[in-house]
Structure prediction request, 637 residues.
Amino acid sequence: MTRARAEITELWLNSFSARELLRGKRTRARAVDGRRNKRSRHSELPKVGNDKGALLQYGIVVAAMLVVSVLNTILNPIVGVHATALIYLLAVVLLGLFVQRGPILLAASLSAVVWDYFFLPPVFAFRVSHFEDALLLGMYFIVAIILGQLTTRIRAQQEAEREVKLIAESERLGKNLLDSMTHEIRTPIAAIKSAAGNLIEFQDVPLSSSQKTMISEIHEAVERLNRLVGNVLDVTRLDSGYFRPKISSCDVRDLVQVVVKETKKELAEHPLRVDVEPNVPLVAPMDFVLTQQSVMILLSNAAFHTAPKTPISLKVRQQANQLEFEVSDGGPGILEESLSRVFEKFYRAPNAKAGGTGLGLSLAKGFVEAQGGQVEARNAPKGGAVFTIRLPLAASRMTT
Amino acid sequence: MRAAPDQKTIVLVIDDEVQMRRLLRACLERSGYEVAEAACGEDGLWEATRCQPSAVLLDLALPDMDGLAVLKRLREWSQVPVLIISVRGHEEEKVAALDNGANDYVTKPFGTAELLARLRAVQRYAQPPKKPEVFHSGNLQVDLVTRTVKVQGRKVKLTATEYALLRLFVQHAGKVLTHGQIMREVWGADETDRISHLRVYIAYLRGELEANPAEPELIVTEPGVGYRLSVLENGRD
Prediction:
């Protein structure tokens, strides 16, 4: 257990430092990841190095040109004027490996000017008397420009790859952290539940009714704690930015059926009316589990905030290009002041009954918005609260 | 109060949490199983070869290796029923475990009764003693030899794909089949664009077989994971 704890701390620190590194890059990082094509990503890339680095690069270029010029002055009598031009070109090519496009252009211009002025006869004049020399100068620039272009592109690519790797790493660390936390918190809960279960299943002596009550109290508390932990972990997962809905074709009526089955216990005292309009398509693109959980949250929320026997209704319909899940109840509705805040994390309406976590609706909102949909809360004109989930039906949302 | 000693079988528990192992041992021994334990993946694999268990309870978060890796290595030589017990409970994890040969999946915290029921189920369905020629569940009756399907004694006509789907379910009755597994078996390896077909065929099949297709009892949806053909008691004669 100590191992796990140390691991969590380490993971936390790691993910923190990775997050620090990524700060400011996050928005772009999402765009990179978000199914955008590779080319557009490159054009968005930042210029490598800051202003200071750029100045330094220009300095290096000037210094290098000076050194090469001195070298060429010494070599010129031995190798000839055209070889010195090649030495300049070699210097520009080598610089291209280390500096940016701007400095490389400066290097090319400098060397061309210096070569023309100091080396190319007539010396100390910018005259180019032979066609071959003009051609050489022209070629010279073209080579330098292409080189600068290529090195910049390669560097940008490397940078992009590093960034993608960094994001993947940070994402992995974040996931591991959440998994470790889940493991650490859920394991003792599992132990409590299992122990209480063993007490009921294997009674050496028949238990008294008060003992049975105590055990069922333990069960109830464990369930509640587990739900709470689940909600908190889900909120963390949503907030982490590592959350990716898995959108695929789902059978809408099957989803409704699962929702009804899974909420039967919580809605035991509330009559539920389910109505799937005929215009609802057989299959629609969505994350099955997230949508199911969101609708379940709305139904349990309705049951929680209304008196027993209050009717609850779930309507599913297609409205323009959207799929709507509408949960309404015949309860007292939502206070006007709370209406805009019900989806906030930990918000609890002043008249709300005790026992909720204040996380359910914010989770539903997060699950729906992660899929590109919206949630809405309002009061029906005839009274009662109405919650609506709208999911886009466009096929472009399909990822799997 | 042990169950009948003659049905005593060995269950191997692979979990790094000592408290979980203690509790599982208590619960399993009281139910008449013999228990072997391992605290890490390597020990678990070794223990599996040594004691030849009739079932394995495998935690996915192990200190030395990933639980899925243990499962894969175990499946290289053994078809012992494996019941995954994990705290994470993500659908992707369930799918990965089932695709790699796990027989079922329980999320911690689980109830004792639930665990025991699942354990019995994986043992029963993993190695059916003798394939009954006619499968029964509720009002459904499937004869794989003559390819006849009856609901409430009435013959039902299915298309080739519907029948292929149903046959797959019958062959794995009671077990969760992942979307990927079903699509691979019924439509072949090219699977990703078949999910909407699968949804539609499941809806058709339910329309033909279920007493109330809006509340299916035979073909049960496992959200985010797949489907399961449930074996209803009243159908067994």
Q: What stands out?
A: Chain A has a mean pLDDT of 81. The CA atoms of residues 190 and 222 of chain A lie 9 Å apart. Residues 1-243 of chain A form one domain.
